[in-house]
Amino acid sequence: MKLDESLDCFHRYLARLWNQDQRQAELSFNEYEYLTCLAAIEGVCDAHQDTVFDGPHLTDLAAKMQVKRASASTMVNKLEKRGLIQRVQCRYDARAQHVLVTKAGMALVRKEQAIYKNMATTIKQQLTKEEYRLFEKVMNKVCKHL
User: Fold this and answer.
1) Adjacent-strand bridge partners of 137
2) Span 116-129, mean pLDDT?
3) Which of 47, 50, 61, 109 is most buried, by the most CB atoms less than 10 A from its CB?
């Protein structure tokens, strides 16, 4: 099987897993994507403890998601109403706000991540230790460029 065919097969399998789990899920895939992206931005910024960082702005989220600011704003409003994110006033710019994932939001993200953890376990069972290590290394390399 060619790589493009394997990727298509893999994507369709993960989509089926997500859709099956969706009956019990509390997040749409789009909501999940925004929350995980926001959490990743927060995590990257937390790593730079020598600089002052209160959290990402809406423009940071829109840029990372590669969407227009208006689209990000619509989703942020929706997630905020559900208590999954919160806005915090920027201490340097009164016009700006930071967007942060709440504990409730992170709890749902972790719950949804179980799909991918289960898939990783399934893959690990199909490969030797060396194949799995190499697969993980290649996937990390590819994902750095996405």
Assistant:
1) none
2) 92
3) 61
Indicate whether 137 belongs to any domain.
yes
Residue 138: partners with Cβ closer than 8 Å, 6 or more residues away: none
**Digit-coded pLDDT (tens) for 44-54:** 544 444 444 57
Enumerate residues 6+ apart whose C-beta is below 8 A from 65: 33, 34, 37, 71, 72
Q: What angle do CA 76, 23, 4 make, to 5 degrees?
A: 80
Closest CA to 109 of 45, 42, 12: 42
Query: Which of 7-16, 20-29, 73-82 ranks highest by mean pLDDT?
Result: 73-82
CATH number, domain of 91, equals: 1.10.10.10
Alpha-carbon distance values, 111 to 52, 119, 123, 142 (Å)? 31, 14, 20, 25
Residue 19 lies in a domain: no
Find the domain containing 57 and state its range: 28-143
Q: For residues 128 and 83, give the distance between their C-alpha atoms in angstroms, rounded to a whole number.
A: 43
Q: Is 96 contained in some domain?
A: yes
If you average pLDDT over residues 96-123, what whole number do you get?
89
Whole-prediction pTM value? 0.77
Helices (H), 27-143: 29-46, 58-65, 69-81, 103-126, 129-143
